[in-house]
Structure formats: structure tokens, C-alpha cells
DNA sequence: CATGAATGAGAGTTCATTCAT
DNA sequence: CATGAATGAACTCTCATTCAT
């Protein structure tokens, strides 16, 4: 609900109705709407972080790991019902009134990017990725691919087409960053 | 104002004050807040479209044109005070209550993407861009680069660093899509 | 309404309904309920202060002035529909969330007590009031007489009885503080 | 808690926490918050009544008794942490939703005033107090002295100053009502 | 046409009260 | 009896929209 409709479009009444409890009950568990959203995001980010680690350790090379990670996130996004990464990504814009919670969120996001940074630098060290490119650029290009904004217009119900899109994005990205271009 | 603070964070009072007219006067020209925002976006999109065309015709090859376009949009985004593309991009998420206006916006967005699609297909026709990649993928990868969400965290006041980021993103993208990589 | 039912017992809906305007309209003129109450009190205190001065200047001796002042306040209180002093007195307990407004209120209350203090010290100087009594005690005894809490139970509709009560309170007070006892 | 912070500022949660039982348990013993407050006041009033009687029987003359009573109440008030009389006095303003309980409270308050009325009339009978003054006036003047509202602004931590204030108030009051002034 | 005070539906939040455990 | 999570009515406050001037 919150993940799909957004912060302002989702009222506490709606949330309560959707969860099947009374509005006041929410305030037993969360002191404010912001706190609720932050807690939700925190949970999602933690799940996402765990997912990242699980995905990474299933592969050995930096390239394979980064590619698997890209597929993992894309799969999540293409499931149409926005999920982990989507909710996180959507929330990075907002300014919450709870500095402490925001700090926790920022810390988690940092840990997420650290994983990717590690993969990139590892790949550069092993000679898999270009050393001429800054980590910053490769990181930015990586996460840019998951801009749900534009994805929405490209989502197709056809499983095959979606898969093909992901494959080609992977090709574009890795041709761009990898040392040996495939063409 | 609307472009920077967002739809919900900008009240009609603020808009009126900023424009220098009375709040009631706005409703003479626009039937609702949504209509106002849509009209604003429409104007921005039209300007942006004109900007695209101006940029494109300054170059001859598809590659040069697409690269110039990328730089044009990036410059807009990096100016920090969100401008044309930024306001458009930000608004694509929202669901307005005015179907007719939304349709006009959709039409304009389509005309924008058509420009890029034309460049891509032209480049494929001339052999500049890979024919194996679908237009969809190259289009998606192109607009993904402008995810302001993630850009925010990478914006730096240092002009030189920003420029370097753009250069490297261009390298990644075009190495990925172009037939002959330049490195 | 607010004066009679008290802060917590009077909702903004009630106030709006009583004044004959919409709830939202109140917030055009006052930023919060506290601000509204403080403004109301401020106005009452200013009126009261003006009333005090008007009463005082109608008499010449300290004794006559203080007595007239006592009658003035009592008359206000006995009118049953709580008025100036009553609303002020009732509000001295509350803790508002607007420090600035509270400071203004405190300043006004100080100016009110200053008038009485001046009368008392003047009377001591002229030999009308006992010099052995501290100003503080005479001041406190004076304002204590207007404790609406207890007054409520003694208010009678009979004009004559009310007047007699006031007369006797005056006698008790002034016999207590004046140099020459009457008895 | 209730005595100090007031009815509206004290929630059932706070009361439960303070008493050390669960919130729901309160409702086994008291049907409502009003009933709880009324019961608390009733207990306080009964204690106060017992205190009055204890104080009175320690002295013989009406004058001594009334003076001792005045000191007794004042001491309670000056202890800053509001106690018996204070809680009672504070509650007389409120309008409870339990007519029966309010009646019991009213009855107890009447019994309290009856003690004072008895002292006053006894003193008039023995010639200690002026017969010209109505019992009502002397009663009202007596309880007026305990207006906590104004007392707050005069409370000082200095034990000596507080005592001096009480002494002078006693002098003012008794000079006002007694037949022979003592100076 | 322009104005801005007035509107009122709806938002987030609180808290006395209830009831399954 | 005791519990405390759940309830929902009522509160304060916001803001897009209207309309008499």
C-alpha cells in the first residue's frame, strides 16, 4: 500500500483498514506515521541487504556477482508489485521528521552501497573491470538502472520480453565497465 | 518551487505568493491544483522538446547527437535547482485526477522518447549502434541515467568532479551500445 | 464559552459554532488554540487594566481607590457570566505551549498587580494602611478575595444579598489592613 | 500525580503506571476516570475532615481553633506538592459526568464548611467574633485565603518568609472579624 | 477579472474504555 | 481478578477550493 501509492497518497486510515486493525492501534506500535514508514523501510532494507549477501556468495567472480545482483534487483522490480528495492528507492526522496530514524536508514543504505562498491573495486583489482573508470561512476550507473520511474513504462507482462530486457541491460552495463568487451 | 519541493510540499498559497498573484486568481486560469501542475509540466515538456531539437540539429552523427543530448539533460540535472527534465521526471510518479491532462502529458512524453528512439534507430541503421540490442533496452538505459533520486547523493559542488562523472557515464553507456568502443 | 467551560472542555468546533464561523476560519486569525486563548486573555487583561485605571482615577484617597477597585472586580464576578477578571484568574493555572504569548500575559498580569501594589504602598505612605504589614500579604489577601472557585457557591441571584456580601468582605479586608479599625 | 498535573493532563496510563497496576485493572475497581477521581477526592476530603477535627480539638477558644485550622490548611498548601485541600480545591471547578459521585463530594464539602460555620457562630456567640458580620461573609473570606491560584505566585522556598506571610494573613483576617483587634 | 477571507472535508494523533486471554 | 493490546470517537490542525466584494 504505502510502497505503491506513496507516502502522501496513503492515509493512516487506509493503512489501518488494509492491515485490518483500528487506526489507533497503529500508534501503539509506532509513535507517528513517519516512524511507521521508516520502520517499514528499515525492514525492507535489511531484507534487501540479506538478499544481496545471499546472492553474492553464490558466485565467485566479481563480474558474476555483480551480474547476479543486478538480476536479483531487476527481478524484484519486474514483479510489478513493487517490493524491496522499489520501496527503498522511492523513499530516498522524502524528508522525515525523525532524524534518528533517518540516520538509521542512511546507515543501511550506505551498507548496501558498500557491497556494490566492494564488488566494483574487487573487480578492478582482479582486472575484470576497467580501472580507468571511477568507482563513483560505476556505482551510479549501476543503481541508475533501477529507476522505477522509467521502468514502469517498460514493464511488460510477457515474461520472455522482460527477461530479454534485463539481459540487454546487463550487456550494455558490463560492456561499458568490463575490460573485455563482448559486442 | 513546485519543481523543487514537490507536489504535496507546495501549497497553493506558496504558489500564489511566488507568482505574485492572489490565490483566488489562480483558479480563474486553472480549474484545480492538478490542472495547474499539469499545465506547468506541459510547458516544461514543450520547452524540453524544443531544447532537444535544438541540441540534436547542432550535430550530425547519431552518436554525437545522442551524446550531446545526454550532456544537455545532465547539465540540467546537475544545476541543482531542478529544471526542465527534473520536474518532468519527478512528476511521472504522481497520479493526477485529470485524465485529459494526463493524456496530454503522456503524449508529450511519448514525443520526447520518440526523438531518442529515432536517434537510436538511426544509429543502428548507420551502423553506429549495435543492432543486436533492442531499441527498448537502449532507450531504457538512456533515461535510467537520469535518475535524480540517486544523482542527489552524487552531486558535488565541484564543477570538475561533476563533469568527470558525466564523462564516465557517457563512456559506460556508449561503450555498451556503440559498435566500436572508443575507450 | 471558553471563559466558562474552560480550556479542555471547549473544543475548536464549539468555538467556531458559537462564533458562527467555520473551524478552519479560526486558524486564519490564530495559529493555534493556545494562541487563540492567549489572545482572548490578553484582550480581557487589557480591558481589565483600562477598567482599573478608570476606577482608580474616580477617587482620591488610597483607601477609596482600593475599595472601589475591589467593588469593581466583585461586580464583574457576581454577574455570574464570568467576565474579565474571572477569565484571567482561571487561566493563570494553565501552561501554554507558546512561550512568547505566555510572557505577554505575564507582563500584563504584572502591570495589574503593580496598580494594586502602588495603591497599597501609597496608602501606607499616607498612613491609611498599616505599615507593619508587608505589601505582599496585603496584595495576596486582596486578590484572594476573588477566588471564583469559592465564589460560585456563594453567588446568589438576590442583588441585595450579593451587595451585602461585598460590603462585609470590604469591611473585613479594610479592618484588617487599615490603621483605624471601625468595628 | 492527578493532584499536581490536573485532570486533563493526567492520563489513565500514567495513573496505572504510578499505582503500579495495569490500566485495565483500574476499571475493575472504578467504572470510569471520573469515578476514580471522585473516589480519590472523597478519600482526600475525608482525611481532610478528620484533620480538621483533630486540629480543632487541640484548642479551646473559637479564635484559637479557627486560627489553627487556617494554619493547618496553609501548611498543606505551602508544601508545594499539592495535598489534601489543594486537590479538593482544584477539583471544585470541574464538571463530572457522575451526578451521584458529585453529590457525595458536595455533601463532604458541606460537612467541611459546616465545621467552619460552627466555629464562626460559636465565636460570635461567645463574643469573640463580630456579630454584625454575616456567617456567609466570614466563611467566604476564610476559604478565599486558600486560593492556590494566587498562592503559587507567592510561594517562596524560604521557610521563614512563608511563615511570615501566613502570620500576616492571619492578622488581616482576624483583625477583620474579631471584636477586639490585637494589632 | 482580481481578491483573500471563509469554508469544510480530511489528515494525523490521543486516550478513556473494553475484552479476550 | 489481572492484564494490556485493541478500539474508535473526538481532538487539533491543514489546505484545495469557493465566492462576495
TrEMBL record, chains A, B, C, D:
Ranges for domain HTH tetR-type: 1-48
Annotated Gene3D superfamilies: Homeodomain-like, Tetracycline Repressor, domain 2
DNA-binding region (UniProt annotation): 11-30
Residues of the signal peptide: none
Pfam families according to UniProt: TetR_N
InterPro entries in alphabetical order: DNA-bd_HTH_TetR-type_CS (IPR023772), Homeodomain-like_sf (IPR009057), HTH-type_TetR-like_transc_reg (IPR050109), HTH_TetR (IPR001647), Tet_transcr_reg_TetR-rel_C_sf (IPR036271)
GO MF annotation list: DNA-binding transcription factor activity; transcription cis-regulatory region binding
Source domain of life: Bacteria
Protein name: HTH tetR-type domain-containing protein
Originating organism: Reticulibacter mediterranei
